[in-house]
Amino acid sequence: MNIKHNLLDIEGTTAPIAFVHQILFPYAKKHIVGFLKNYQFTEVKWEEIRLEFEKDIVLREEKFVSRFSANGSNLKSELLSFSPEVVPSYFEYLIEKDRKFGPLKEVQGKIWKQGYESGEIKSTVYPDVLEFLKKMQAEGIQNHVYSSGSVEAQILIYQYSELGDLRNYFVSYYDTAVGGKRDKQSYENIAIELKSPSNQIRFFTDIVEEAEAASSAGMDVVILNRPGNIPQKPHSFPVWDHF
């Protein structure tokens, strides 16, 4: 097989899940209220947030209703209508739910940027990643990133890693603007962006459903089984413990 592109997931693949969930998410949650005081969303983003909030009203998930009801107590209470004032608390709720929501990812990326630049955050990347990237680059294989985090957040992880600045080893970055990571069309879109047949792209992930979507689009697939990763359902994909 003539692989010309590596498409790499981040969480659970090149970086530990614990770094994302125990460092990045709590940092964003801690700073999000203060950050949003001076942040201006576009009208398009406001509409996107409003629609997401109203979808949660319809779903009436108990924690959501408890947080945003008029009296903050029960499922039958009247819900608050959407307003800018509820957004900070709503984003905290979305972080708790690990919701893959574009406007939230955008804000998280900017908060993390401040943390990285101040030195409060240093990203953890698995030690074997650097040698793998160097080897692939030396062999003429291009490295790309596809993660649910915003492109800005992806770049920051590799720029401020404990292994040094790794940005020179990557050619391009993709987030959910190309589509969801469990959707076949997303991988077809990336292949089009790369101007490459799908069978010349190898996708690395820790999630079987993502692997299935990439495989159905014609990509070669490898699943990473890193320490702390979530156990996966039975599958026939090759499994690596390291690069």
Structural summary, described in words:
- The chain has two domains: 5-16 and 124-240, Rossmann fold, CATH 3.40.50.1000; 23-118, Transcription Termination Factor Rho, Rna-binding Domain, Chain A, Domain 1 (Orthogonal Bundle), CATH 1.10.720.
- The chain is globular, with a radius of gyration of 19 Å.
- A six-stranded parallel beta sheet has the order 3-2-1-4-5-6, sandwiched between helices.
- The two termini are 18 Å apart.
- It is α/β, with parallel strands linked by helices and 243 residues long.
- The chain has helices at residues 17-36, 43-59, 62-68, 87-97, 102-118, 128-138, 151-159, 184-194, 208-216, and strands spanning 5-8, 142-146, 172-174, 201-205, 220-224, 239-240.
- The model has no long low-confidence stretch (mean pLDDT 93).
Strand elements, count: 6
| Main sheet: strands, sense, barrel | 6 strands, parallel
What is the H level of CATH, i.e. the homologous superfamily of the largest domain? Answer: HAD superfamily/HAD-like
Strand content: 5-15%
**Rg estimate, integer Å:** 19 Å
Shape: globular
User: How do the strands of the widest beta sheet line up side by side?
Assistant: 3-2-1-4-5-6
Mean pLDDT: 93
Head-to-tail CA distance between termini: 18 Å
Topology (elements, then pairings):
Elements: E1 5-8, H1 17-36, H2 43-59, H3 62-68, H4 87-97, H5 102-118, H6 128-138, E2 142-146, H7 151-159, E3 172-174, H8 184-194, E4 201-205, H9 208-216, E5 220-224, E6 239-240
Parallel strand pairs: 1-2, 1-4, 2-3, 4-5, 5-6
Keywords: Amino-acid biosynthesis, Hydrolase, Magnesium, Metal-binding, Methionine biosynthesis
InterPro entries: Enolase-ppase_E1, HAD-like_sf, HAD_sf
Protein name: Enolase-phosphatase E1
